[in-house]
Design goal:
alpha+beta; 5 helices; 29% helix
Amino acid sequence: MNIIFEKLKENDLETIAKLYDSERPIVTNREKMYQTFEKIKNNPDYYIIVAKQNAEIIGFANAFIHQDIFEENKPFMTIWSVRIKKEYRRQGIGRKLFKYLEEMAHNIDCEFICLIAEKNNIVANAFYEKLGYKCENGYIKMLNKKYYHHIIFFYLTKKRISACTPFYSIF
């Protein structure tokens, strides 16, 4: 199975919106989606990575690179909104997508990766833990949101990104 990973293109937006909406109780506002994409498409720290097989999008993930201006920390990556089409799950695509993202983080010299995940998605959370992510404490305050889901935070240090060693947290 030949999978390619690339940055999202505008003509892929409708496809990923359908994939994203397939497991949510609300529908993506398409007008806002296109407006937001216009704002972020040239931001060098913002990535929406799509997984494609035979030109078909079969998964994606959002990633953002954060810079720390106060301490001597290196950048870190946050990953969220990870989706793989149901019919392609358990075929190693999610593992390959995370490997791609981790290599990206390593190449950017990120200190760690923060993964935001839904607390009640037990299957996905077990998958993240198998990849070496560790559930840590985090807080979130939803502002003006009708739809709320419980979120947990996973972290992966640079040591794990580059050398597959156990996680150690300073948090």
